[in-house]
Design brief:
Blueprint: E1 4-11, H1 17-30, E2 34-38, H2 41-48, H3 57-83, E3 89-94, H4 97-101, H5 106-116, H6 120-124, E4 129-133, H7 158-175, E5 181-184, H8 190-204, E6 209-210, E7 215-221, E8 229-237, E9 244-253, E10 258-267, E11 272-280, H9 282-288, E12 299-308, E13 311-318, E14 325-329, E15 344-349, H10 358-361
Parallel strand pairs: 1-3, 1-4, 2-3, 4-5
Antiparallel strand pairs: 6-11, 7-14, 7-15, 8-9, 8-12, 9-10, 10-11, 12-13, 13-14
Helix pairs in contact: 3-5
């Protein structure tokens, strides 16, 4: 492994980013990586006198514009330093550029990005992966506190919990559309959350990691889904070696812009695999479609993503088999309970049932 990998570690208030950063540095430094960490710029600005709660629009605008400019400058300078290193490097940003957009109106964000000479699409593409740690305010309320961050404005009461949950979802929404956005659930055991962070970064670096069994259920929708992100997925499997699984995916979010991804999984032992994922352009996507596995049809499904009680869910509705709805959550430990939302009815637990893997559902 060589080169530079740039990752955003983000999340709602009291999500555990500070602890996760320490563990990331320790773990990957021990594997021979040079790890750079870029500090949270809004915290730096708050400590220096910026007031993000001000009612003075001009002051707020200039402060947020400066926040974005400094964020970009820091990332660029650390990138130059990483390019001078001989060992492989990881740059971990304590929040990234798109986090800034979650705290203002869409119009103001567009004004600021235009003034800085960039755009939402360009800012998302600056990073190889985005890991969002769910706020403790959603599903782990007993661990929620504001005492460990003097710059946090949310009060540690029920009103503060509601604000924190709202901010958590806004930040996820800001990053929706990134090709490698992963949402890390809350756990009763915080160590499980940290292990998931390390595993996701290992995947980005194409390092062997433990095969993770996703918890899956066939469900029926019996109510409205609150605050979900919707996307359309077209997934095609390519001809590959027996121990490998290669898929091409086109994913279109609400904004209508497609993202094309090439994903590969290779089993290296009974319990470990190497998974890689990269974004490709539309021309390469069209070319690679010629390698489609003739024994597997293309899967088409609508995905609705949401957080419920600190767990991140993906609800897929398939066109074939028509009406099939599968609910999935990752990173839930064996002794943890999956918190099925009240607007869904679990029909059958299909965790580990290979016939419901997308790869097998695609068989003609």
């Amino acid at each position: 492994m060589s080169g530079i990998t740039k990752i955003v570690l983000t999340g709602g208030p009291c999500a555990g980013k500070t602890t996760a950063l320490v563990k990331v540095i320790e773990h990957f430094s021990s594997l021979g990586f040079k790890v750079f960490t870029i500090p949270e710029v809004p915290t730096m600005f708050t400590q220096a006198g910026m007031d993000y709660l001000t009612t003075n629009r001009e002051f707020f605008y200039e402060g947020e514009k400066a926040t974005l400019e400094v964020q970009l400058a820091l990332e660029d300078k650390f990138l130059r330093m990483a390019e001078a290193c001989t060992e492989p490097c990881i740059i971990v940003c304590d929040r990234g550029t798109m986090d800034i957009s979650a705290y203002m109106t869409k119009d103001m964000w567009e004004d600021i990005t235009r003034a800085v000479g960039t755009s939402t699409a360009e800012l998302r593409e600056r990073y190889d992966a985005v890991l969002h740690l769910v706020s403790a305010a959603d599903g782990a309320e007993q661990f929620y506190t504001t005492s460990n961050n003097a710059s946090r404005n949310e009060p540690a009461d029920e009103k503060g919990l509601q604000i924190a949950r709202m901010l958590d979802k806004k930040v996820i929404g800001a990053w929706a559309g990134h090709s490698h956005l992963r949402v890390i659930n809350n756990h009763e055991d915080f160590e499980a959350k940290i292990k998931r962070v390390l595993r996701e970064i290992s995947n980005v670096l194409a390092l062997p990691s433990q095969i993770e069994e996703e918890r899956k259920y066939i469900v029926r929708l019996i109510g409205d889904i609150p605050e979900c992100t919707t996307s359309e997925i077209t997934q095609t499997y390519l001809v590959a070696d027996p121990d490998s699984e290669v898929r091409l995916r086109k994913r279109v979010w609400n904004n209508g812009k497609p993202v094309y991804l090439l994903n590969s999984k290779k089993k290296v032992s009974e319990h470990e695999q190497i998974e890689t994922e990269q974004q490709v352009n539309s021309n390469l996507y069209i070319t690679m479609m010629q390698q489609a596995d003739p024994y597997r049809r293309t899967i088409e499904k609508t995905r609705r993503s949401f957080i419920w009680k600190g767990q991140f869910f993906e609800l897929d509705t398939y066109k074939v088999p028509e009406g099939l709805m599968i609910l999935e959550t990752k990173g839930v430990t064996a002794n943890e309970e999956v918190k099925i939302p009240p607007f869904l009815e679990a029909v059958e637990d299909i965790t580990g049932r290979k016939e419901y893997y997308n790869y097998n559902l695609a068989k003609r």
